User: Which sequence fits this backbone?
């Protein structure tokens, strides 16, 4: 396990050194402990928890209190990775004052080291205000899941004349003070252009290989999410059948009386 804690300056330096940045989502203590020991650079406590853990169809129902619960659980693992917390829907859109207060809670009460805010030009004023009080902000443009109703679903963005707008969004996020930006669900060529133009790191998800880093949802790469399987997801393991087999064996042994044995009992 690495000894050095990863910080915002480290992430910025990785861009300058052309060192790829690895980011994964985590929502609890055991997964965080495992992935941090494996060397991931950034842990995102994503509002995707609402879909892959709570079973919602979208991220929209996730609340501040729920996010704070999961951020605290992640921080208890004392990860060396940088911990970034998603700001849930309607926690930052109402007013600058409320955005700063809620982002501050994520740092002060949750223990996050940065927050992630969705939106480009329309949210630049929020990113600027939050950054100005020394809360590091990761931006998020392209396919923004909290805008699913406007977009008409989880559809690739940046086509049909939208490319220039997404480039403008990315530049607006950088100008507002974000230390990095997630590029989600956009054509690879567009992501490459944005990555070459920005001085801050880009983290891609469904945005091709030319971003400065990549992020995926942990449940997706482990084969634990049955709701969907986007084209950009690579499954590195299929844990569902392994877990299912273990549970089936446990149930069988309880039913036939072979568990527990004297080995698992107290005298």
Assistant:
């Amino acid at each position: 396990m690495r000894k050095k804690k990863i910080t915002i300056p480290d992430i910025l330096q990785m861009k300058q050194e052309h060192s790829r940045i690895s980011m994964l989502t985590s929502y609890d203590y055991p997964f965080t402990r495992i992935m941090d020991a494996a060397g991931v650079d950034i842990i995102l406590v994503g509002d995707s928890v609402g879909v892959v853990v709570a079973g919602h169809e979208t991220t929209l129902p996730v609340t501040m209190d729920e996010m704070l619960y999961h951020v605290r659980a992640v921080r208890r693992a004392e990860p060396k990775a940088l911990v970034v917390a998603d700001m849930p829907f309607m926690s930052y859109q109402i007013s600058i004052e409320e955005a700063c207060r809620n982002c501050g809670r994520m740092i002060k009460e949750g223990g996050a080291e940065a927050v992630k805010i969705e939106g480009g030009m329309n949210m630049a004023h929020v990113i600027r205000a939050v950054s100005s009080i020394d809360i590091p902000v990761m931006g998020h443009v392209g396919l923004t899941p909290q805008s699913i109703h406007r977009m008409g679903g989880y559809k690739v963005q940046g086509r049909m004349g939208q490319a220039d707008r997404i480039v403008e969004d990315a530049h607006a996020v950088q100008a507002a003070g974000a230390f990095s930006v997630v590029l989600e669900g956009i054509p690879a060529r567009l992501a490459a252009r944005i990555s070459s133009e920005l001085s801050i790191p880009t983290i891609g998800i469904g945005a091709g290989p030319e971003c400065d880093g990549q992020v995926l949802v942990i449940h997706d790469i482990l084969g634990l999410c049955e709701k969907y399987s986007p084209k950009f997801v690579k499954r590195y393991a299929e844990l569902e059948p392994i877990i299912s087999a273990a549970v089936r064996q446990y149930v069988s042994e309880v039913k036939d009386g072979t568990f527990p044995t004297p080995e698992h009992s107290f005298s």
In short: Residues 108 and 130 are 14 Å apart (CA to CA). The chain has a mean pLDDT of 96. DSSP finds eleven helices and eight strands in the chain.
